[in-house]
Amino acid sequence: MVHGSKAPDNAAPKDLPALDKLLRECAPVVAEHGHTLVAREARALLDGLRARAVAGELPRAELDTLPQTLAARVTARMQPHMRAVLNLTGTVIHTNLGRSLLADAALQQVLALTGSPNNLEFDLATGARGDRDDLIEDLLCELTGAEAATVVNNNAAAVLLGIAALARGQEAIVSRGELVEIGGAFRMPDVMAAAGATLVEVGTTNRTHPRDYQAALNPRTGLIVKVHTSNYAVQGFTASVDEATLAPIAHAGGVPLMTDLGSGALVDLAQWGLPAEPLPQAMLAAGCDVVTFSGDKLLGGPQAGLIVGTKAAVGKIRKYPMKRALRLSKLPFAALEATLRLYLRPERLVQDLPTLRLLTRPQAQIAALAQQLLPAVAAAVAPRFTVEVVALQSQIGSGSLPVDRLPSAGLALSAVDGRGRTLEALAVVLRELPRPVIGRIHEARLLLDLRCLEEPMPLTSQLSVLKESLA
Ligand SMILES: *Cc1c(COP(=O)(O)O)cnc(C)c1O
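That's the L-seryl-tRNA(Sec) selenium transferase sequence above. Prediction below.
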């Protein structure tokens, strides 16, 4: 018996080419990518083939196309794991899909500035060392009415830094109704501990009163913290103390008031028929010393944590050593500044900011797109699936405004055999497209909410691949 070759059309280990020979046959690939990568992939390829040959499971025909196989492997290896996808989940600011989309102005600024030296920490007027905060502080103050502002890596960092800078080694008072967890490891009690502050809980889950805060104030108190309960709603017999009521209580006790808004829209969303979110400017007007919010939620910019407030409080935060470790890097910094500048032209925001544009898209427009796409999508998934246009409810996402829904539309795909497993398989095929399509399965249908598809092309251009994959 010939070892490793159970059938005549299977290759034996000795049939595999030597590494050098394979590399010579792939000279153009080596010329493009260099020896290191191509040789590493060639070795891995040959190892895999050898194991299959030993097992007698390597069809000889595979050896005829080894150069092409290797070239494809090398190309695949150079594809980043992080890829553009189509978000047809119906959740506009989707935390798992990268949250807000950057405006064109922000994208251009990132491209222009990060491939070149820039004045990130250089004062062009004096030629001396500068502070990156100076590039953005005036703008943030103008937009929010704050005395001072700074930015860090994300809002979680802003909250951590704010508490550490203002209350490390002291007590920080928080209502029991606001001890939130915001996805993953960000839980207010843990953040307090990490910041070195002692959490003092007041009130109850559903009701907290001004007197609860007053009773907790003592000489060890460093800070009162309010947290916007953005990702859930407490309904029924509830009471909380708003910032305007709490600020005088904090100040009478000689401590600052910090509020974490989470999403923090910079403009009143109600003007576009969206649910209202508390604005940083309103929080500052109510007497808060520090307000923190995210850059990549409703603001529509890059991941960032924005901190606005009084000179005294923001000054302490800026000087706190942890700030250096949490500072915003130049890429998002460039994008953030460009995004904030768009807010100087509020009338144009709906066009300029993709997040706002998507959130305000009328249902009729989305439904028209669904109608337009229906025949082509139906043809691509036939005969195993049927497609219909349906009314849907989009969500804003990222914990903002959790109970509100936006009337939307999309395509609902149903398996002709009616089995759930078939739908799961379809979801897999959609995720394997060159630009993965992410929908959601709900009540035995795969739903593609088209709110976030502004152009048909990214979907229609992939329908032939989809049809082939399903064949
Ligand atoms: C989202 C959120 C955070 C965290 O913000 P990131 O920018 O994601 O770090 C903190 N607090 C609240 C209330 C939030 O909603």
